[in-house]
Design brief:
Blueprint lengths: L2 E6 L5 E5 L17 E3 L7 E3 L5 E4 L20
Antiparallel strand pairs: 1-2, 1-3, 4-5
């Protein structure tokens, strides 16, 4: 069951919601409005080497010096 991030149009609250099925409609926990939009969430990962050292990281942490990209797929590193 995925957890999605939502934004409430009524009260400007941002919240996470655990979705149980395709027809599950979240409501804002602050104001109970159903006028909410799903947000694009950034995901992250760490690749570990055999010794446990971090080999690659993604989503906002670039290991390239001077790189402003949030994904290493843009520069190939």
């Amino acid at each position: 069951m995925p957890i999605y991030e939502y934004h409430c149009e009524k009260c400007d609250n941002k919240f996470e919601y655990l979705v149980f099925g395709s027809n599950d409609r979240p409501e804002c926990p602050a104001c109970k409005s159903k006028n909410v939009n799903k947000l694009m969430s950034a995901c992250g990962f760490l690749s570990k080497g055999r010794g446990g050292e971090t080999v690659k990281a993604a989503a906002g942490t670039s290991s390239c010096s001077g790189c402003s990209a949030t994904s290493c797929s843009t520069c190939g590193h």
